[in-house]
Amino acid sequence: MAVQRLDKVLASTGKWSRREVKMLVRQGRVLVDGVPAASPEQKVDPDAVQLCVNGEEIAYRRYTWLMLNKPAGYLSATSDGRGATVLDLLPQELQRLGLFPVGRLDKDTVGLLLLTNEGGLAHDLLSPRHHVDKVYRVRVTGCLTEEDCRAFAAGMVLGDGTVCQSAGLEILQAGEESEALVTLREGKFHQVKRMFAQRGKPVSYLERIQMGKLTLDPALSRGTFRFLREEEVEALRNNS
Q: Going along 81-202, which residue ranges are E strands?
């Protein structure tokens, strides 16, 4: 990787602002390969040096990827005057990194939401030409039938003329209240809810459980997150 200013590298971790880094350097609390940093402007290759602050080794990430188990009541946005956003669920040091949601989940929809500051890959994952599957667990009012499955598979034209591509519908439980898995290869506005509404079976619960090859970690409780592992990010790259 090309060399960068030391203050930029440390600020990119989200732990400190550039102003705070400058103070830490002046106090001799930043070591570069075991030697006190000469200045905040010192040029370093973050992939090739050992950086320590206050005796703690700092792991550098060029990009940050998080898996969030989104709870209901939060907007999939970076800022919004209408209420709390998913970024409000993160600690301050991560909020400084310029993270944004990869796609959107409705305010009342829960489950898998990716957050990143890597714009290129995020765009690829959302681009219709890459056809990244998204799987949802859904509960609807009404009895789902094979006719519904065929309607989803055939594609749908909604009441306002919106054309929906072929989608998968796997019935898990049929009855007065039915449960199913839905697989989409696109992401139109309120698409799952609108497709079921077209079939006269309104959605009462919606959870995204998979995006591409990445499945929602069952160890994550609602409102919690974790960093993606390198192999998971690589799987997303291969999927896109």
A: 100-101, 110-116, 134-141, 156-157, 163-164, 168-173, 177-184
Q: What pLDDT sits at residue 240?
A: 65
**Is there a contact between 66 and 227 (Cβ–Cβ < 8 Å)?**
yes
The domain 65-128+214-239: what is its CATH number? Answer: 3.30.70.580
Is 4-57 a CATH 2.60.120.320 domain? no
Which among 7, 45, 80, 106 is annotated as catalytic? 106
Class of domain 133-211: alpha beta
Tokens of 49: 């040096």
Residue 96 to residues 92, 102, 132, 171, Cα–Cα distance (Å):
6, 17, 29, 42
pLDDT of residue 47: 83
Residues in the chain: 240
DSSP assignments along 17-80, one per residue: -HHHHHHHHHTT-EEETTEE-S-TT-EE-TTTS-EEETTEE----SS-EEEEEEPTT-BSSS--
| Axis-axis angle for helices 119-126, 230-239 (nearest 10) | 50
Concerning whether 148 is annotated as a catalytic residue, the answer is: no
Q: Within the chain, which residues score under 50 in pLDDT?
A: none
Instruction: Give the global pTM.
Output: 0.82
With CA atoms as reference, report the closest residue to 110 among 132, 96, 89, 91: 89
